[in-house]
Amino acid sequence: MRFDPPIRLAYLVSHPIQYQAPLLRRIAAEPDIDLTALFCSDISTRAFHNEGFGRVLQWNVPLLDGYKHRFLPVWGSREPVTSWRPFTHGIGRALSEGRFEALWIHSYARLSNISAMLAARRRRIPVLLREEMSQSSAQRSALKQGLKRLGMTGLDRLVAAYLAIGSANREYYQAHGVAASRIFPMPYAVDNDRFRATADAARGERAARKQELGIRGERPVAALSARLIEEKAPADLIAAWRLFTEKLPPERRPFLLVIGDGPLRSRLEQMAKGLDTVRFLGFRNQQELPLLYAMADLLVLPSIREPWGLVVNEAMAAGCAILASDRVGAAKDLVREGVNGAVFPAGSVPALAQALERLFADSNRLAEMGRQSRAIIEHWSFDEDVAGLRAALAATVRR
After folding, report:
1. Do the beta carbons of residue 325 and residue 344 sit within 8 Å?
2. Domain regions of the chain by residue span
3. Please, are residues 329 and 168 in contact by the beta-carbon 8 Å criterion?
4. What count of Cα atoms within 13 Å lies in the side-chain half-sphere of residue 285?
5. How many angstroms separate the CA atoms of 23 and 28, rounded?
6. Residue among 194, 195, 131, 189 nearest 384 (CA)
7. In sequence order, which ranges of the chain are alpha helices (DSSP H)?
8. pTM
């Protein structure tokens, strides 16, 4: 399907997001989609304090190149970014001035986004909603579930189409009464080409880089790439790693790279005392991640709450097998048991240790799982995102 003339699409999101910038460039390159991103904050375009990592960050990938964008006016400061702040205004004027035919919104749980949906309704502009929620990521009491359903009923009056990031997200919408015909697939994806190409380029340096970290010989390597916070359950992985590796003779023990930082780091380092196969690498920026994935055979994500988990996509594109908890949204769509990895029950240290034992039992099989990861992620890409977005626009925009 092609739009003639091009559809004028506004995309509203809290701030430039490192994972989304390549997708926005990809959409903007479509000749019949005239995309403009509307940002509430510019916090990520400069050095800023990230609470999850517990440090000041500055992204080393381009966030604003290759697509049209503007920052909405605000009352007061543009930070912090919360459900209520910054206090943006002028969204109605922006929609009118841009003569937009559709408004795509990332997340509804923000004051500015609700205001934008109301402004779009007044102008008869259809709203496309992309949201991360799933049933498992939103554990609630029966009372809260009932209130949430009432809230979704009100929200549903403002939304023309829902853009599902994956199966669990689609099921969440349907559980709250959204008709299947109004849900379009727009899967959470990363720049597969960049992660694949950069990882491949680094393969020749794999041995030298492993030696720099004191990883002996051709020992296999697992990696955790995450903020070191309770939701990611890194302590479960350290505990399981001890159970798993202590059964093995020293010369056969794999190594674990802990990539990331956060408030739990010192506690985790204490837990890992005596484990000479664990390496804490701290925070690593976007350009460094493919190089680290190239050193790893397996990515482990043990989260107890993870609406998606884009590190799974990244590691799969780089050729890693995946071990994820059943609370990781990406696992439902991307991890195939025994094919490219395994899934274990979140919070179970013994189950995690057993899964590690199974996956590391055969290095050839683990390598084949990494190859299967690449084959699977090929079909979970920006191409599918653009196709889903096109279908939603065709179904909702009236000319």
Report:
1. yes
2. 7-189+381-396, 192-377
3. yes
4. 10
5. 9
6. 189
7. 21-28, 91-97, 111-122, 142-156, 167-175, 192-202, 206-212, 234-245, 265-271, 289-295, 310-318, 329-334, 349-360, 363-377, 382-396
8. 0.92
What does the pLDDT read at residue 58? 66
Q: Which residue has the tokens 């991640």?
A: 289
CATH H-level superfamily of 7-189+381-396: Glycogen Phosphorylase B; (3.40.50.2000)
pLDDT for residue 141: 47
Average pLDDT over residues 272-281: 96
393 contact partners, CB below 8 Å, separation of at least 6: 3, 7, 9, 33, 102, 128
Architecture of domain 192-377: 3-Layer(aba) Sandwich (3.40)
pLDDT tens-digit map of 333-362: 999 999 999 999 999 999 999 999 999 999
Measured CA angle at 200 (ends 369, 259), to 5 deg = 75
312, with CB counted inside 10 A (0-12, 13-18, 19+), is: buried
Residue 222 φ then ψ, to 5°: -110, 155
Tell me which of 55-69, 109-123, 367-381 is least confident: 55-69
Q: How many residues does the chain have?
A: 399
Equal CATH topology for 7-189+381-396 and 192-377: yes
Return the structure tokens found at 161: 């189409």
6-12: average pLDDT: 98
Name, in order, each residue with C-beta under 8 angstroms of 365's C-beta and a sequence gap of 6 or more.
none
Phi, psi of 348 (to 5 degrees): -100, 100
According to the model, what pLDDT value does residue 146 have? Answer: 45
Task: Please identify which residue in the block is written with the tokens 């943006």.
Answer: 88
**Cis amide linkage into residue 86, ω under 30° from 0:** yes
Give the pLDDT of residue 365: 97
Peptide bond into 345 cis (omega under 30): no
Q: Which of 263, 254, 268, 231 is nearest to 346 (CA)?
A: 231
CB of 146 closer than 8 Å to CB of 51: no
Tell me how far apart the alpha carbons of residues 135 and 118 are, in angstroms, rounded to a whole number.
26
